[in-house]
């Protein structure tokens, strides 16, 4: 019986190993996102409990939050999930030009969201120390904003890596993980928007 392995079989085994490695990486990344979800869920629970039990929930002189601009920012951020999905599909078709364009558009939409949040913060009549609501508002929106900023940095990294010849020949883990992280960030913001802006 022949004991040697042909080149084709070796390539097949190497492909299986690469696939398993990517699967393990993605599993680890999903576990990381679950841990992040637990942190956000604890913040959500704290916000709900404080809102229900705290008299004079809003800071003195504040009757509520303006919703129009945050709603526009929300639409832009949530829409960016679809755009980064298009970037993923373009990469699967080996269309690097469209991949880069959709990725750049996603980064621009995320940056617009952060700019809108910064403008909102600047115009608010209360600060981080303005009662329980002030502290919770800045903690929740700031922590989420940090995740948006992280997502933009990750997108910038994979955009730069797309210019390295053959970088994505052996898998798209970085792109898939970044896209999943971005979807996670968008879902978290939807919950935050409902809790903070809709439920006033």
Q: List low-confidence stretches.
A: none
The residue fraction in helices comes out at: over 70%
Q: Ends: how far apart?
A: 76 Å
Strand composition percent: under 5%
Radius of gyration, in angstroms, nearest whole number: 22 Å
| Major β-sheet profile | none
**Average of per-residue pLDDT values:** 90
Sketch the topology as an H/E string, one letter per element: HHHHH
Number of helices: 5
* Basic shape: elongated
Features:
single chain, mainly alpha, 5 helices, cell membrane, Cyt_c_oxidase-like_su3, Heme-copper oxidase subunit III, transmembrane
How is this structure best described in words?
The chain has 200 residues and is mainly α. Helix content is 78%, strand content 0%. α1 (7-53) runs antiparallel to α4 (131-161), α2 packs antiparallel against α3 and α2 runs antiparallel to α5.
Mind sketching the topology for me?
Layout: H1 7-53, H2 68-92, H3 96-123, H4 131-161, H5 173-198
Helix pairs in contact: 1-4, 1-5, 2-3, 2-5, 3-4, 4-5
Short description:
The protein is mostly helical.
């Amino acid at each position: 019986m022949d004991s040697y392995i042909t080149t084709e079989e070796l390539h097949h085994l190497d492909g299986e190993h690469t696939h398993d490695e990517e699967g393990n990486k993605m599993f680890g990344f999903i576990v990381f996102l679950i841990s992040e979800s637990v942190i956000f869920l604890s913040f959500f629970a704290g916000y709900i409990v404080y809102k229900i039990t705290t008299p004079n929930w809003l800071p003195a002189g504040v009757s509520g939050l303006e919703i129009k601009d945050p709603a526009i920012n929300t639409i832009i951020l949530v829409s960016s999930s679809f755009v980064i999905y298009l970037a993923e599909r373009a990469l699967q078709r080996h269309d690097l030009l469209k991949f880069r364009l959709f990725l750049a558009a996603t980064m621009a939409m995320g940056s617009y969201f952060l700019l809108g949040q910064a403008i909102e913060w600047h115009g608010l009549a209360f600060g981080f120390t303005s009662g329980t609501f002030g502290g919770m508002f800045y903690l929740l929106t700031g922590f989420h904003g940090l995740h948006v900023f992280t997502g933009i940095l990750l997108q910038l990294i994979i955009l730069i890596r797309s210019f390295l010849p053959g970088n994505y020949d052996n898998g798209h883990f970085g792109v898939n993980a970044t896209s999943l992280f971005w979807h996670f960030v968008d879902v978290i913001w939807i919950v935050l928007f409902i809790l903070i802006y809709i439920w006033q």
